[in-house]
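User: structure tokens for Sugar kinase, please.
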Amino acid sequence: MTANTQSHSGSGPDIITFGETMALLMPSGGKGLEYSSELHSLFGGAESNVAIGISRLGGKAGWFGRLGKDPLGRMIFKKIRGEGVDVSRAELTTEAPTGLMMREVLMGKTSVYYYRKNSAASQMSENHLDEAYIAGAKILHITGITPALSESCKVAAFEAVRMARKHGVKVSFDPNLRLKLWRIEEARPVLLELAKLSDIFLPGLDELKLLYQTEDWDVIVSKLRELSAVSIVKGGENETYVVTSDSVTAVPYFKAEHVVDTVGAGDGFCAGFLVGVLKEYEYAEAVRIGNLVGSLIVQTEGDWEGAPTWEQVDAVLNDVKHIER
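Assistant: Done. Predicted tokens:
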């Protein structure tokens, strides 16, 4: 994956995203990591979760990043490719290992342990960007996790946004604030700058309270209106909010019948929403699709495994009855 500026054929992905994807180990049977003798081998990463979700919904998605040329990296690469995501710009390197995370759910609370320092993903730089590839997309989706990984990753994130804007590609930005990666004082100026550069801003309400240092919803709305982006605020009491320069629209959640694993809900939301944008739906309707996808993903273990197909989404939206036999 090297930088080049060759002309793009136009047959590439509609939505491109990039970032860190890690192997994921989870204990079976709801036990704690400390007491489990069996672990499920999965993988996850905000950006690849979104790309897989988009692909399942029928969208053309591309993901790139750096993985170790090791068994975990090869597993991740093949599985993302197997989900129909374009990985032609992803790289397997012998220079560093694939990152690893372990997750347990005890008494209803999720704990994640990361082993990602000096991983292949953390060594990504602007030299790993393909400008023509980004220019050929309709949307570039990034998260605030990438700039938190290292200085070179931060430079790469801003450079990718610059490339997208240069070629008229919409920028979608989910801050995905991770306080295990950096302190809020470090994160705040970086994430707010990326929000200013985006066309679609996808924060959670709790993230906005930290970024804007206020609990006041009216103050938050006025801050969002200073951006040129449309803001889609996740994590309201019972709804997601669409905030534009002159309106705030609340879109109700879909009730999840049985919550199994809440991780991946936000990424599922982004996938559903962005596919709605691709289909040129009104923002409120695109949010409705995102809300539905998020509610379906939490009913399955894993970050992305429960991502629905468009047929499944359409069936729920149109109340199509399931025929068992």
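User: Anything notable?

Assistant: The longest strand covers residues 100-106.
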